[in-house]
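Protocol step 4 of 5: obtain the predicted structure for the target chain.
Materials: sequence only (see below). No template structures provided, no constraints applied. The aim of this step is simply to have a reference model before the mutagenesis design in step 5. Sequence pasted as it appears in the construct record:
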Amino acid sequence: MALRVLIATKIFPSERNPNMAPFNRHQFVALSKLCEVDLFVCHPWFPGESLVSRFRHGEALPDIRANTSVDGFTYHQQRVFHVPKVGHPLAGLTYATSLFPRIRHLRGKVDAVLGAFAYPDGFAAVLLGKALGAPATIKVHGTDINLLGSMPTLRPLVSWALREADAVIGPSQALIDRAVELGADPRTSHCVMNGVDKELFRPRDREACRRELGITSNKPWVVFIGLMIDRKGGRDALAAFRQLHQRRGDVELIMLGDGPALDAYRAEAAGLPVHFPGRLDHEAIPTWIGASDVMTLPSWAEGTPNVIIESLVSGRPVVASNVGGIPALLNHPTLGECVPARDPKALADALERALSRTHDPLAIAKQAGFGDWRESAQSVLDVLTASRTR
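Step 4 output (C-alpha cells):
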C-alpha cells in the first residue's frame, strides 16, 4: 500500500505568489506520483489583513481558495493565524492550532508528516505529527536555519523542532550540518538534492534565445536571477558590474526578479547597461539563461540555490558566493567559480575571468550531472518511509 503523506508549508506557489518556491512545487508534485500526498499550503493571516493590504499596496490580497491545482496536482490552502512582527515566537503554535481542525480526521490515516521550512512550518509539523500519531520530518531550506536559527528569540524554537523531528532533510550537506548543530539527530538527517526539469533547462543556442526575446545585442551578458534584496547579493552584483564595466565596456547585466529593493537598484544602475525585465514565470527563465554568457548569485547566505543547478544544466558557467551549499555545486573549474560574499571586487575579477574564457555548454551540463525531480522525490520518499521505523 502506498504511503500517505501530509505536507504543511507556506513556501509553495499560490494565487498570492505564483512564483514562490518552484523547487517545492516540482518536488512535491513528483512525490505525489510516488505516494498519496495531502498538501496544505498555509498563509499567515490576521484580522484586518485585507484592509492593511489595501492601505499599503492599494489593493486587497487575492482570496484563498480551499482547494486549487498546479501541474494536475490538487492541494489545499489554509489561513493560519499570525500576528505580524511580534507574533513570531508563537507562530509555530498558532500555525498548528489553525491547521489542526482541517486535518483532525486524518488521525490514524496518515503515515508521515512533512513540514517544509524549519519554523514555523517544521515546528507545527512536529506538533501535528504527535497529534495524528505519525512521524514528522522537517525539510530545511536555508534562511530557516541560517537566519532564524541565529535569532535569540527563535533559535530555541527551531532547535526544539529539529530535536523532536523523526527525520530532517535538506538540499545540501552544509544545511544538514547546520541542522545538526542546532539539535537534529545526525543519524536521521539526510542530504536530499533538489532535481531539475531537464526538458525545460538544457543547453540552448545563445543567439536563438536572444532572437526569441526580441533582442539584437550581441554583447556579453551577465545574468543575476533572484529576489531584489541586499542579502541575495543584488547590490553587490551592481557594485561588481560597475567595476567590470569600467574594465570592458561591452558587457551588459540582466537582473531578473522582483523585490523590495528593485527601485533602489534601478536608481543605482542609472547610466549603466543594466536591464530589469522584472519577475518572470519559471518557464520563461531558461530562455534568459540561454541568452546569457555567465550567471551570478553573490548571496550572503544560501542553501542549495536551484537557480545555480538550472544554469549549469543549461550549460552556463556560474560565479557565486562561497556560502552554504554553493561550493558543493561549483566543484569543478568547468562549472564556474566561488568568491567571498560581500566582496564586489572579487566578484568583478571572477566575472571578468569567466567572460574571458571560451565555454562549452554541453561540457558544463554533462559535468554538472544533476538528477531529475523524480529521483529527488524518490529520495524524499525513502526518508519518510524509514522515519516510520524509528
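Step 4 remarks: The chain has two domains: 4-195+372-387, 206-368. Confidence is low (pLDDT under 50) at residues 51-61.
Proceed to step 5.
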